[in-house]
Amino acid sequence: MKFVFNTSVIGGNIENNQAALFAKNKKTNEIKKTTSEIVLICIGRKANFDNLNLHLLNIELNKNKKIPVDEYFNVIAQPTIKAIGDAIDGPMLAHKAEEEGYLLANILFDELKNNKKKKAHINYDLVPSVIYTHPEVATVGYNEAKCKELNMNFKSVSFPFAANSRSRTIDDYDGLIKLIVEKDTNRILGSQIIGNNASDLILPLSIYVANNGSSKSLSKIIYAPPTFSEVIKEGAFPSFGKPLHL
User: Fold this and answer.
1) Residues 8/18, Cβ–Cβ less than 8 Å
2) CA 181, CA 215: separation in Å to the nearest integer?
3) CA torsion sign, 133 to 134 to 140 to 146?
4) 169: how many CB neighbours lie within 10 A of its CB?
5) Residues β-bridged to residue 20
C-alpha cells in the first residue's frame, strides 16, 4: 500500500483496458501518470439541502455548510425546528446521528413530561471512526496533530500486529496500534488502529478515553491468548517504558 500526499488527480482515461490517472503534485507541479485495473473514488460527502427551501424559513448554513443548532438541537433561526445527523456539524457517521437521535428523543420527552429542557451531552471527540478495508482502520479521540494544535504534553507509542500471536497464526499481520498518552499522567487521549478487527478493538479504547483512563490501568487487563485484543495490552506497556514483547 502506497500513500501519495499533497497531490490532486487532474484527469484520467482508459488505456489498454486499464485506468490511467494523471496526478499533479501541489508543491512541485510535477505531473505523474499511474495505471491500475480498478479505481476507487472517495472524495467525501456533503449534506444535500437543495430541495428543502431553507431560505423560506430564513435558515442560513454556517461556514461548514451545515444548519446551526444550539445545545438542544434547536435550529438557531427557527427554535421550533430540530436538526441532527448530517444536517448539523460533526462527523457524517451513522452512529453519530443515531446517538443524536437518542439524545433528542430524551430531550423531547423531558420537555413534554417534565416541562424542562435537558442539554445534549454528546462529546464528538469520542465518536469512533472506522474504515472497513483490509486491514481495517479505526480511530477515536485525539491524534498527534490535534495534540500539537492544543499544545498538549503528550507521547505517542505503538505496537505492531506482527508481534501478535493471533496475527502470526493466520499469517496476516499488517498494521499496528497507536496510543496517544498524556506524559505526566499516562491518561489515554486517543488511539489509532490499523489491523485485523480494528473496528472491534477500538471499543475498549473509546471507553478509556471517555473515562480518562490511564495506560497503566489498561495494561492490567488480562486478555485471553491468542487473540487480536492482546495488542491493546501490549500497546499500553511502552507508554510507561515497559514494553513486553518488543
Assistant:
1) no
2) 7
3) negative
4) 10
5) 13, 35
Residues 192, 197, 200, 205: is their CA dihedral positive or negative?
A: negative
Q: Are the C-beta atoms of residues 157 and 176 closer than 8 Å to each other?
A: no
Nearest-angstrom CA–CA distance, 205 and 203: 5
First to last CA, the chain: 24
Q: What is the CATH number of domain 126-239?
A: 3.30.390.30
Per-residue pLDDT of the chain (246 residues; tens, 9 = 90+): 788 889 999 999 999 899 999 999 999 999 999 999 999 888 778 889 989 999 999 999 999 999 999 989 999 999 999 999 999 999 999 999 999 999 999 888 887 777 777 776 788 889 999 999 999 999 999 999 999 999 999 999 999 999 999 999 999 999 999 999 999 999 999 999 999 999 999 999 999 999 999 999 999 999 999 999 999 999 999 998 877 887
The pTM is what?
Answer: 0.81
**Is-contact 6 25, C-beta < 8 A?**
yes
Phi, psi of 77 (to 5 degrees): -75, -25
Chain centroid, CA 72 distance in Å: 24
String of b and e for 22-58 (b: at least 16 CB within 10 Å)? ebbeeeeeeeeeeeeeeeeeeeeeebeeeeeebeeee
Decide if 104 contacts 75 (C-beta within 8 A).
no
Distance CA 230, CA 219 (A): 10
